[in-house]
Design brief:
The protein is mostly beta strands. Strand 8 and strand 9 form a beta hairpin. The longest helix has 8 residues. The two termini are about 25 Å apart.
Length: about 230
């Protein structure tokens, strides 16, 4: 799964990297070292004409949901079931998004202490921004308020990730991002080909402080190697 990640790049770099024609005000962006489910997260969608950068709540709320709390159960979507699971099937066809990050965390169980897990930070070797494949939806509650939400797609782990966890987020290659975003692209077989584990040789991982375990902590000390 993917349950915590970071986005700390300067706002201007985000705009340049993802070529967004329309985007939120820079004042609405703050670097985040400990992004958790339920947060409003930075994402790119395409309206059929251009890319837009905005905020989506992490935890997908399907349009048919009775309660928005279902989103906390749908922070991730397995790549293998996107076409068959009712929660994701419609969004997979035409509501795909990029969820922006520069690293993510996963926890490795420490066999020397039964209840201890060591947080590990994963990033690209270059340290650059990347896009995780996501889906988004619009949900309206009984009083008319709309909530725009998203989920991060996961796939089987690559060899770097496998000793830590059996799943990892789908990281898209730059050249595949436009195809993923295009709402006119409904070639499910072709889209499925994009949902593979990212190459291990292009990534690195290292242990970080257990301070990241608490969402109350959010600072550069969380990404320091220990």
């Amino acid at each position: 799964m993917c349950g915590r990640y970071t986005l700390i790049a300067p706002f201007v770099l985000i705009i340049q990297r993802f070529h967004t024609a329309k985007h939120i005000e820079a004042s609405n962006y703050m670097p985040n070292y400990n992004i958790a489910p339920g947060s409003n997260v930075m994402a790119v969608v395409n309206d059929g004409r251009e890319n837009r950068l905005g905020l989506l709540r992490w935890g997908l709320i399907p349009p048919w949901a009775d309660d928005e709390k279902i989103g906390y159960k749908l922070i991730n979507a397995r790549a293998e079931s996107l076409s068959t699971r009712a929660s994701f099937r419609s969004a997979y066809q035409k509501k795909r998004c990029l969820i922006l990050a520069d690293s993510f965390y996963e926890w490795k169980r420490d066999t020397s202490f039964r209840k201890t897990k060591q947080p590990i930070r994963f990033q690209l070797r270059t340290g650059e921004l990347f896009a995780m494949a996501g889906l988004w939806e619009s949900w309206q509650n009984p009083d008319g308020r709309k909530v725009f939400s998203c989920t991060i797609i996961t796939t089987e782990a690559n060899p770097l990730m496998a000793p830590i966890h059996q799943r990892m987020p789908v990281i898209l290659h730059k050249e595949d991002e436009a195809d993923w975003l295009d709402p006119k692209n409904q070639d499910i077989r072709g889209l499925n080909q994009l949902l593979h584990p990212f190459e291990e040789e292009l990534m690195l991982a290292y242990p970080v402080s257990q301070a990241v375990n608490s969402t109350k902590n959010n600072g550069p000390e969380l990404i320091q190697s220990i």
